[in-house]
Amino acid sequence: xxxxxxxxxxxxxxxxxxxxxxxxxxxxxxxxxxxxxxxxxxxxxxxxxxxxxxxxxxxxxxxxxxxxxxxxxxxxxxxxxxxxxxxxxxxxxxxxxxxxxxxxxxxxxxxxxxxxxxxxxxxxxxxxxxxxxxxxxxxxxxxxxxxxxxxxxxxxxxxxxxxxxxxxxxxxxxxxxxxxxxxxxxxxxxxxxxxxxxxxxxxxxxxxxxxxxxxxxxxxxxxxxxxxxxxxxxxxxxxxxxxxxxxxxxxxxxxxxxxxxxxxxxxxxxxxxx
Length: 274
Ligand SMILES: C[S@@+](CC[C@H](N)C(=O)[O-])C[C@H]1O[C@@H](n2cnc3c(N)ncnc32)[C@H](O)[C@@H]1O
Prior knowledge:
This protein is α/β, with parallel strands linked by helices.
């Protein structure tokens, strides 16, 4: 196999379809995100960051909680995501939100300046150690660092289908090849603690994906967007990939199939107070 795919964008793509998928996914994950933000006590006046916010992330949920006296900063390294987040923030009238283009490994924002630094579905990528350390650095002493990651290895459908199982194996192989960790969720507490967070707590939230929900089609959609990296990397031919995606979409669309997208782990802790 060649090692052509080297980054998040190589594997997951940056197409308009990917942006739409992330917006739909953010909406689908809203109840779990809201529960986490309420659990950590996000309050009016807080300064909060959403690291790797993509086209919307949790910017809207943070905006309503910190209110007009607070501020939310979205951080993403991909220009097109920054522009789309900017557009959605404007369209939704979120006056307390700004979006900056920055690398989460070295965001170049004032250290110790946030009450909350949050990420979702970013630490699955190859640079989780550097990103988590930078997140802890951005939090004020005593501030909260929070993370949400799915353990994709725990996803399944029932009844199982050979196409879905193969597709999951292909996606896991493609992500692992770029140094991503599809089972990161279950290690999330340890990852925060290793970066220096204290009082780390962990919650697991899970539910079956209802017929009609965007996340029900997550695996075939992810694989479709990862198509270029998978084919270029010699994992599957494009014809094989199309066949598996088609079969898997049909199986997931069947309302009698149970679809579980994986355990969602949420971890949060504090930057030690000085
Ligand atoms: C799977 S998306 C998740 C988007 C959003 N957090 C959500 O949950 O809806 C991952 C996002 O992280 C961003 N990202 C990955 N590595 C990054 C880095 N080093 N610095 C900034 N953004 C990064 C990607 O550009 C992408 O927008």
